[in-house]
Amino acid sequence: MTQKGETNRYDLHSRRRRFLGLDKDQALKGLFGGNALVSIIVLALITFFLFKEGVGFFGQYRQDIELHRRSGIEYVEIMKEQSAAFTDLNRYLNSIRGEHATLLQEQGMAFKDARAELKVYEEFIYAFEDLGYPVSEYALEMAEVAIGARDMYEESANLREHRENLLALGRDEEAADVEVLDVDLSLFVGMLKEGEADFLALNDALAAGLLSHIEKLPVIGIDSLDAKMQRFAELSRMFVGELEGYESRLAEWDPDLPVNMVSAFGSFLFGKNWVTNSSIQDWYGILPLFTGSLLVATIAMFFAIPLGVGAAIYVNQVAKPAEQNFIKPYIEFISAIPSVVIGFFGIAVFGQFVREVSGWTILSGFDIFPISERLTAFTAGCLLALMAIPTIFTLAEDAINNVPKSFKEASLAMGATRLQTTLRIIVPTSLSGIISAVLLGFGRVVGETMVVLLCAGNRIEIPNFTNGIGTFFEPVHTMTGIIAQELGEVVNGSIHYRALFMVGMVLFLISLLINYLAQKIVLKYQISRG
Amino acid sequence: MSTNAILSRERPSQGLGFHSKPSKAKTTEKFVFWVFRLGTYFILACASVIFLTIFFKGSQTVFQSEFPFINTEFLLEAPQTLHVFEHEGQSYEMSDTNFRIFEEEQGVDIKTSTYAYSGGGIWPCIVGTVLLVLGAMGIALTLGVLSAIFLSEYSKPGKTLNAIRLSILNLAGVPSIVFGIFGVGFFVLAAPQFAFSQDAAGSFTELGNTGFYFKFGWGVSLLAGCFTLAFMVLPVIISASEESLRAIPQGLREASLALGASKWTAIRTNVLPYAMPGILTSSIIGVARVAGETAPIMFTAAYAMRDQLPWEGLEKWSDFFFQGVMALPYHIYVVSAKIPQNEYTERMQYGTAFVFLVIVAGIALASILLRIRMRKKYRW
Predict the structure, then answer these.
(1) How far apart are CA A237 and CA B44, in angstroms?
(2) Is the per-residue pLDDT at A10 higher than 80?
């Protein structure tokens, strides 16, 4: 104690006030440290929470798929697939007639005469349609059985849970009143399986009917249409050939085949369907959303990379200082436009503009134009390009600016022109920075929500990549868009809710990956200034 | 000026007959630079088209030709249904309240065609946006700046610090909708809410017999929105503030410490004043981002329609924080995507977009100008 008193004599801050045993400096350090701790905990919490909510999805999804199999809905879907293939055939046949009708109309034939002309093979079409009825009716009937079984099973599961909850609360009397049916799914599946012979008989009848029917193929008398008729006959024969495949799949189907976590995982990552609130079966496959996001981002980057990097090169290497002082803040300013405003511009002005341009006669050479949709991947992509450009521009300009001046001077001194210096010295030297700028721009585009929600058309389907350029003009749905669209209507803790969390997690991981790559590239290829 | 004059000024050798025509390399250079130039100005033109369209069409809603030249109804009233009708040979367009007064004055029932969301104004949206921004920035700046001071001034450099820094930087790039979905799961549905009395709906559970009530979830509320937005900008603010703190030369701190100042005095007098411009700029950018984002508030704070202003009809003070609000960005989304389109809604859309753009762009412009000024002021 005396020692302390002694030091105090020489201490300039002897009147220092103490709070909880800490002096002012320590208290402040504690305050700052506490804040830092809170921030870090919160940010860690976000990551943890996303994972926690998301990971529960797979267990639920596995159960869901298992129920789908055990209730026999999967079995019925094979039948439905077959009848859908038949419907496709029917549609093809009808399209021939439609084409014929427009052809006649173009020739200036009166409506009545045209009808008479078409009437010749109308019988053939109707008879063809009738051929498919027994099978599709049968499939519908079976679907009702399977769905009914599934619904009963789910209801009884709900009731059982309710009863257990009541028991847990000690309300035994109420619990006793809850009647729970024991639903044995195998009974229903047995019913389905018993009918298999009937279905096979129907199929045989269908095949025989089809083959004899196409013997009576009508001749229209127009070469192109007759060729299509021949093609139709060919397709019909192929369909008959495929019937066996469906039948063997039905025979091989086993309701007790276990569904493991891997298949739930695969069904999420590689599933081609995202179907929610369906009466038959909900599917949560991320592939259509992922490809949609990717397609939109590709279009955006197609425009944003050349424009953004080009502008960065121009501003840093070519522009006069006055121009620089105007262009740089302007482009930075673009990044401040709220995305919802850009999306609104897309809906109100740009979508319409794209459709009108696609109707111009210069473009009539492409058979994909004019496009029918106003809101497509292309519309959203163009607008997103404008949002990615400021990111790419600012970072790429920084990277170019970081190239040591001596590099440029050396090159100019060797007699290279400014262009040669720019393209062969400056750009290659700053390439790592430019690539990471592009990556971060890509990250921004993939994570953007409002523009794609408003302008991408929101059709959940994998884009048809066989269309060539036409693919870019299809409406798509995206990962960010689906969260924004469906999060408002989900039940807390339901499988749908967790599926959206999983989509959020995929987005989270993608953005982390992009950031990581960008940082790696910058560090790895940093210019040595020795 | 003739070409000769230009050439001769650049090249004294002109008279000698060298370089009588530009070399191939020079021609290519000119061509390529022109391509770059056109590309750059194309970007500016695209952005200008967006600005001009919204400014031109929006100003028709916001401004008017008669005194007071600003459409006060649009700025100061709540969104309402628009009534369009003809009465005694004259056609009228009126918002719901005005229409009722008019009907009473005339004493007749008038048949009208109505358009949802097309009448009235956007006052509650402006109020809601301002409240969200204030709340979010209050939380984010306190946490962010203080954390940045700790990370750059007090913490010991090492692997842990680098890892923290890296993860904060990575979180800055996470899409805003991911923060939105986090906000829904955490604040709206799971965060505990405490109270000293039961509410009208009886949704609270009492903790024993303590007179202390709680329930899970803040619901769609101002508070949930503020926190979601705050955590969205938090990484941006921490990393930007820390950067500007670390940009202060070490010598300034050392000089101050050498004169006997305590650590805090050194920071307060020799670090913070010089880092302030950088921190300020980053926080203004944060404000622009918070004000402009739609995705995080869609499910955490925003209502498509609410009759009362946030301070009206409160039962107790805490209700202020646990109520949903209208917000400008969400209102734009609602009027442009969720309701049937017609010529009357278009006015509302452009008007809202105009006001929103002016607010956000004003904030962003301020930060850009500030940064340019500050860059000139401090250099070492």
Answers:
(1) 59
(2) no
Note down the domain range covering A219: 73-254
CA distances from B237 to A205, B224, B274 (A): 72, 20, 17
Beta bridge partners of B193: B215
- Chain B CA closest to residue A520: B166
* Residue (of A89, A79, A135) closest to A235 by Cα position: A89
Helix or strand or coil: residue B216? strand
A150-167 CB burial, b ≥16 within 10 A, e <16:
beebeeeeeeeeebeebe
**DSSP symbol at A310:** H
Which chain A residues are Cβ-neighbours of B293 within 8 angstroms? 338-339
> Helix axis angle, A196-213 relative to A73-106, nearest 10°?
20
Number of domains into which chain A is organized: 2
Interface of B with A in 27-46 (CB under 8 A): 28-29, 32-33, 35-37, 39-40, 42-44, 46
Per CB-CB distance under 8 Å, the chain B contacts of A341 are: 50, 54, 332, 353, 356-357
| CATH at residue A412 | 1.10.3720.10
Query: Is pLDDT of B336 > 90?
Result: no
Do A297 and A224 fall into the same domain? no
Choose the weakest-confidence range: A361-365, A384-388, A432-436, B98-102: A361-365
Measured between alpha carbons, how far is A332 from A78 in angstroms, rounded to an integer?
55
- Take residue A261 and report the two structure tokens written for it: 């976590």
Minimal Cβ distance to A454: which of B234, B288, B336 = B336
**Does A140 share its domain with A192?**
yes
Closest-approach residue (CA) in chain A for B293? A338
Domains defined along chain B, listed by start:
80-120 (no CATH), 123-377 (1.10.3720.10)
